[in-house]
Specification:
The chain has 15 helices and 9 strands. It has about 375 residues and is of the alpha+beta class. It has 3 domains: about 60 residues, no CATH class; about 90 residues, Orthogonal Bundle (DNA polymerase, domain 1), CATH 1.10.150; about 190 residues, Orthogonal Bundle (hpI Integrase, Chain A). Helix 2 packs antiparallel against helix 3 and helix 7 runs parallel beside helix 12. The longest helix is centred in the middle third of the chain and has 20 residues. The protein is elongated, with a radius of gyration of 26 Å.
Length: about 375
């Protein structure tokens, strides 16, 4: 059975669902097939016409002729090649499925903007900059930056790997600057979140606050990810299971404070024999999806009238800021959070202004603990 979105190969030709076009790679390059009128053969049902065009192409090559213009790839060809490469890498090297989905979504949006049949060499950095500017209505600054980097990588792939281009037409485009999540929760805000959140949502918030891990990492944790080393528990996500694993190729080690370890041991006892059981279950007992958890927090934030800057990532940033302000080594905090020291220093290690100092007041006095059941309580 053909995978959705994949090529369908038959007798020297293949169909690309991406742009509804038939191709051949007889010359070593992916060439679209043309009918008698010089139009691209489109539609899965036109396989017979594609075979006929392929036969004509064979004769043209034997005669030393050919359609030289066909070798110039369209933007759709470049993007499709890169999507297939990311998909293949995910299947063979255990990369993140999320990256495949994001790459496909970004690619489709870009092709809708510039046109899938626009010649790749005719594109310029301004095309990419205009595309990113147009997406600001529906994408965050960080997503726009990711989209720009992904598209530049796609065209570099055409230069360095498939060699369909001799240069990257998007190179040099100005991307939105990196925007770090720097909101810090105050002790009063934490108390309000604890009191207003459901037990399941607070469990997630509390876990982020006590471990400093990313929300996506916490929600992926299952019983099978827990390992005991020298009598202490820690959670380990393989390289293909966390955000930066695709870049570093390294597993993510999440270290647990004593109260978190106590909760994890109790949770493991509850789900004994089920390695796929989530460590942080939703209200239904099943694993949270990231979107559902994020939407639940946004709804709580609106209900409580909290600042819009507060997201699930604010608990991670609060973890970092608290420990750095307490004099913990930035290198040690970086290890706990799964960051490099330069990223830690750039994103988190900065002088506190008067407002941030006020936010930190009282945080060191409160310890949020997680009992085996019910809503986590605050003890002082």
């Amino acid at each position: 059975m053909t995978r959705k979105g994949a090529r369908r190969r038959t007798d020297g030709i293949f169909y690309r669902q991406w742009n509804d076009t038939w191709y051949s790679s007889i010359t070593g390059k992916k060439l679209p097939l043309y009918d008698d009128q010089g139009q691209r053969i489109k539609g899965r049902h036109n396989e017979a016409a594609a075979k006929k065009a392929y036969a004509r192409l064979l004769l043209a090559i034997e005669d030393g002729a050919g359609r030289s213009a066909d070798t110039e790839p369209d933007a759709g060809d470049i993007v499709a090649d890169y999507v297939e490469y990311v998909q293949r890498r995910m299947e063979t090297a255990g990369g993140s499925r999320t990256r495949v989905v994001n790459t496909r979504t970004i690619g489709r949006a870009f092709l809708e903007f510039v046109g899938p049949e626009t010649k790749a060499k005719s594109l310029t950095p301004k095309h990419l900059e205009d595309f990113l500017h147009a997406q600001r209505e529906r994408w965050s600054q960080g997503t726009c930056r990711l989209a720009g980097a992904t598209l530049i990588a796609a065209f570099y792939y055409a230069v360095k790997k498939t060699r369909r281009l001799d240069h990257n037409p998007l190179a040099g485009a100005s991307l939105p600057p990196m925007k770090y999540r720097t909101a810090v929760l105050s002790a009063e805000e934490l108390d309000r979140v604890r009191a207003g959140a459901s037990p399941a949502l607070w469990r997630v918030c509390w876990f982020l606050l006590r471990t400093g891990c990313r929300p996506g990492e916490a929600l992926k944790l299952r019983a099978k990810h827990v390992h005991e080393v020298n009598g202490r528990l820690k959670c380990v996500l393989d390289a293909g299971e966390h955000k930066v694993g695709g870049k570093t190729g390294k597993a993510r080690h999440i270290f647990l404070a004593e109260d978190v370890e106590k909760y994890v041991r109790e949770r493991l006892e509850e789900v004994k024999g089920n390695p796929e059981a989530p460590l942080l279950p939703s209200r239904t007992g099943k694993a949270w999806s990231y979107r559902t958890c994020k939407d639940a927090f946004f709804a709580l934030r609106k209900k409580l009238g909290l600042r819009k800057e507060l997201t699930l990532y604010a608990f991670r940033h609060t973890f970092a800021t608290r420990h750095l302000a307490a004099g913990i080594s930035p290198a040690k905090v970086a290890v706990w959070m799964g960051n490099t020291l330069p990223v830690m220093e750039k994103a988190y290690w900065h002088p506190l202004d008067s407002d941030q100092e006020k936010l930190l007041e009282g945080l060191g006095e409160a310890t949020y603990t997680q009992p085996s059941s019910g809503r986590p309580q605050t003890t002082k």
